[in-house]
Amino acid sequence: MDRRQFSIGNCQWSIVNCLPLFLLLLFPIPLSAQEWTRFRGPNGSGVSSTIVPVRWTEKDVNWKVKLPGRGHSAPVLWGKRIFVTSGDDKTGLRHLVCLDAKGGKQLWKKDFPGPVTGKHEDNSFASATPAVDDRHVYVSWANAKEYLVIALDHAGKEVWRVDLGPFRSGHGFGASPIVHEELVIVANDQDGVSFLAALERTSGKVRWKVPRQSKSSFATPCVFQPKGKVAEVIFCCYEHGLTAIDPATGRINWECDIFAKGHIETTIASPIVAGEFVLGTCGWLGVNY
Question: What does pTM read for this prediction?
């Protein structure tokens, strides 16, 4: 059993990655709770602006909800609604579930058919965490036939979907979308045709694509705000190292090819920003940078 823990506002979560999958709420979400809009929360930092408990027992659990299938994605929160994905290893069916944060009641569930394709035994068909804003929740699924980015409103109605083409990776898919201003931004580093892309969050129209000479990567981008300059979107992969993109144009502002090429590596961990520093890691079979 694989148990993962993280915090949202004045609450903590635990996801148990086994069949069946459960979502547990341990502390109530106050009206002023901090939104948790993407993988690892604000800008991927994993840091909450509120004080949260660090330990709990079964008696502290407020509610527990059984979810269909299994998944490695994390829940996201907007207002009083929690959005989380899961997938069925046998049928390939993917699910997006919306729950009431206060009591765990299922408000709606949407199913997305998908093929049963090869993946690492520790991966799932629902490893990409959704992103959410005041209008939509955005999910991404990828396999050998398609890379889908889908926007739904908070009531579960599909608003748009975009197919970015086939996705090739022996270990499956895992990079999560993020929202920056009016854009949904995704990384598409894979064993096939790789690129970075930004979609307009209202329509799904592709704003820009940046070609990449890369292989499978599972890192989710973040945003770096240099002093006195415009924000940059940070991507990380073994072949390119750290890349800073102007989100308005898709132009590469800078790139640091920092990872040694003496052996094969894969980027799994996502980059983070700490003050004026941008941190990225890459490794393989005991070799880390």
Answer: 0.86
The pLDDT of residue 266 is 82
Identify whether the C-beta of residue 84 lies closer than 8 Å to the C-beta of residue 125.
Answer: no
Query: CA 51 from chain center: how many Å?
Result: 24
- Rounded Cα gap, residues 190 and 102, in angstroms: 39
Cα end-to-end span (Å), the chain: 29
Whose tokens are 């547990």? That residue is 24
Helix, coil or strand: residue 42: helix
pLDDT of residue 46: 87
Sign of the Cα torsion 143, 179, 193, 170 reads negative
Closest CA to 145 of 115, 120, 177, 186: 115
Alpha helices by DSSP H, the chain:
none
CB atoms within 10 A of CB 142: 28
Q: Around Cβ 33, how many Cβ atoms within 10 Å?
A: 19
Maximal C-alpha separation, the chain: 52
- Residues in contact with 59: Cβ distance below 8 Å, sequence separation at least 6, in sequence order: none
Local confidence band at 4 (pLDDT 50, 70, 90 cut-offs) = very low
